[in-house]
Design a protein that fits this description.
By secondary structure, this protein is an alpha+beta fold. It has a domain of 69 residues: TusA-like domain (Translation Initiation Factor IF3, 2-Layer Sandwich). 21% of the residues lie in helices and 19% in strands. It contains two helices and four strands, in the order E-H-E-H-E-E. Strands 1-2-4-3 form a four-stranded mixed β-sheet, covered by helices on one side. About 7% of the residues have low confidence.
Length: 116
């Protein structure tokens, strides 16, 4: 009796190190692995601080920015010119990008901040 079992047959076009495609499975890409469908895009987190006053508007914004990854977007809903101005200025001073300030029908403003 041989000390090892014979190797399994390798399907045509595959190497012994690449996974074989099961019958009925989608074809492999060039790397020999199956591609998963893309993840659905998730809406960026939104922080509603319309009832907060300065300096808590910025404190809450900074805490929320600390919880997201670099390059991620945070939407901050504020009410009033002073909080919008202060939060925009303070987050920019920290090096983050305020990409937009979108006025809302309810009188609030949503800042779109990209963490850097």
């Amino acid at each position: 009796m041989p000390p090892f079992a014979p190797a399994a047959a390798v399907p045509p076009g595959a190497t012994a190190l690449s996974p074989a495609t099961p019958a009925g499975a989608p074809a492999d890409d060039a790397g020999g692995t199956h591609r998963l469908p893309p993840e659905p895009a998730m809406a960026p987190p939104e922080l509603d601080i319309t009832r907060e006053v300065c300096p808590m508007t910025f404190v809450r914004t900074r805490l929320a920015l600390d919880r997201i990854g670099i390059g991620d977007m945070l939407r901050v809903r504020l009410r009033g010119e002073e909080p919008v101005s202060n939060v925009s200025r303070s987050t920019a001073l920290l090096g983050h990008a305020v990409e937009a300030a979108d006025p809302q029908p309810d009188g609030s403003t949503v800042l779109r901040i990209r963490k850097r």
